[in-house]
Amino acid sequence: MENLIELRQKTKSLLRDRNPSIEDYNEALPLCKELWAHFSDTQEFWDAHQYANCSKKLGELDEAENVCSYIYKTYHNQNLPSYQKRPFSYILNLYTWVINDKYVKSIRKPDYPYEDIVLDKLFLLHEIIEFAEQDSQLPSFNYCALSVIRVLIKTNKSYNGKMLSIINLIDPEDLSSIPTQYTDHAGKERETASDKETYFQLKSDLLFRDKQYEDCILCCTTAIDEIENFHYDNNIWLERRVALALDNLGHIDDAIITLKKLIVISDKWFLLYELGKFYLRKNETNQALIFMLRAACTKDPEKMKVKLIESIGDIFTSIQVIDLAQENYNFARQIREENDWTVSQTLNNKISAMTPIRFVDIRKHWITILHNKVGVKHGRILKIFPGHRGGFIQADKPYYFQYKNFFGKSDLSKVGDNVDFVIVESFDKKKQQNTEEAIAIIPIRK
């Protein structure tokens, strides 16, 4: 016992009587380990804490975890004497940080080795934090949980049930609704979604995957009502999820209404495609084709739309426009081959003859058919905003347009140029009112 007292004096001089350096921790580690080896006899919690802390400081997180885990499992249900309560509290504090450093901080590292157990560690972290006295020095369970789920939700493995259970431990009222601002490594100012927005995005996704569609809709609508400013208009994803959940509940007409309201605000191609698929299921082929052609006639990369393009081919097949169907099938196959993607046998079976397709040609066909289906308008450019962001086209009345919907050499366009276009419902964010907008705009030479 006298030897142990001497060891404690040495570790005290190294670790507690001054601000210890890494060299001090390295020198103290074997001494602390020796004290820990006698723990079953001494029951000295300070020895356990000192060894675990020293191990953590030196990056030996496995050993630090083993010590903390043993103490917690063995003693957390016991009525400890007063002299042991303080060091036990310190060990709990340390244990939470060991879990944070070992399992949470490393979650984005390549070949992360704890994917199958990290969620169990989050349950344990929550249990320890709940058990421990309120301490501002403890890691935030909410932050840890959201950090892990944000990564795991993208994996192919099914952790859905556990992730839902963990996210249900979070009270969204405790989360900030202010987006996080930071400067990246290149010195550029960046912004990420607030914790509250992240919570609702993740939870609604998990609920949808778990086929809890009513709860998913409630989660999405709560987020839309409570969050004033979404990061980069992320409310679009929540609105879309509401529509998909409504459809899965058998309310396809309500889903269509929801999406039609949404595309007025945001004409993202995948929303138009979803709407087209809904109409196709209702056997409203003409409406389905219109929305799918609108989706095709955006300037998003074609490789993102390979399934859409095949779907357009299917519609043309169903209405016996075989040449256009084959053009779309061949283009879908071509995109897959150019990106080294698998071409399904189903797609191959649809193709009667392999033909190379030029993008400019098929896009011209998409626009022409869209013009014919919706009703083409003729006009001339009335005004161009600085930077060629957009402007107005004069026809029967002025129509707002954006250059992302102009299919020509936009930098060469000028006031007075003749154009053909179609009109869709839109939303004027500045005036906060519905309006009409010109899309699928092509220059006309006269």
How does this model look, in words?
This protein is α+β, with helices and mostly antiparallel strands and 446 residues long. It folds into four domains: 1-170, Serine Threonine Protein Phosphatase 5, Tetratricopeptide repeat, CATH 1.25.40; 192-261, Serine Threonine Protein Phosphatase 5, Tetratricopeptide repeat (Alpha Horseshoe); 267-369, Tetratricopeptide repeat domain (Serine Threonine Protein Phosphatase 5, Tetratricopeptide repeat), CATH 1.25.40; 375-443, OB fold (Dihydrolipoamide Acetyltransferase, E2P) (Beta Barrel), CATH 2.40.50.140. Helix content is 57%, strand content 11%. The strands form two sheets. It has a five-stranded mixed beta barrel with strand order 3-4-5-7-6. It has a two-stranded antiparallel sheet with strand order 1-2. Strand 3 and strand 4 (390-394) form a beta hairpin. Helix 4 runs antiparallel to helix 5, helix 4 (45-57) runs parallel beside helix 6 and helix 10 (195-209) runs antiparallel to helix 11. The longest helix is centred in the N-terminal third of the chain and has 23 residues, at 82-104. The model has no long low-confidence stretch (mean pLDDT 94).
Q: What keywords describe this structure?
A:
446 residues; alpha+beta; Serine Threonine Protein Phosphatase 5, Tetratricopeptide repeat; 4 domains; five-stranded mixed β-barrel; two-stranded antiparallel sheet; 11% strand; TPR-like_helical_dom_sf; Tetratricopeptide repeat protein
Which helices and strands occur, and which strands form pairs?
Elements: H1 2-15, H2 22-37, H3 39-42, H4 45-57, H5 61-75, H6 82-104, H7 118-131, H8 141-152, H9 160-167, E1 180-183, E2 189-192, H10 195-209, H11 213-226, H12 235-248, H13 252-265, H14 269-281, H15 285-296, H16 306-318, H17 322-338, H18 345-350, H19 359-374, E3 377-384, E4 390-394, E5 398-402, E6 418-428, E7 433-444
Parallel strand pairs: 5-7
Antiparallel strand pairs: 1-2, 3-4, 3-6, 4-5, 6-7
Helix pairs in contact: 1-2, 2-4, 4-5, 4-6, 5-6, 6-7, 7-8, 8-10, 9-10, 10-11, 10-12, 11-12, 12-13, 13-14, 14-15, 15-16, 15-19, 16-17
